[in-house]
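Entry for the shared binder. Reason: the reviewer on the internal report wants the predicted structure included alongside the sequence.
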Amino acid sequence: MIIEHVSMYVNDLEAARDFFVKYLDGRSNSGYHNVNTGLRTYFISFDDGARLELMTRPELTDLDKPLNRTGYVHMAFSVGSRDRVDEITKRLKDDGYEVVGGPRVTGDGYYESSVLVFEDNQIEITE
């Protein structure tokens, strides 16, 4: 069994799509719009076959996203090397995103950084 895709609602669909394309080499489809419900989506595909569905619709509820909470916490992206982790983390920091951890070797052996990106969503960049 594989996870076919992960989906997330966002307020700014274009900015979320642009983030994954710009920083994590995702490829976006041309999008979908349901005129009856107002739902708009993009699927972002990655080299290993993983896909992320970004969605928005009118009248979303935007709750606080503290770092230590139940439910969705982060998505981790393996970028192939420690040098790439460092490079992408620096690029994100230079572009104004908040690095909340790392880069470092974690207690369970991962080399990673944690970054708050668009709309206070957390991602991990791993080797």
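Summary line for the report: The mean pLDDT is 94.
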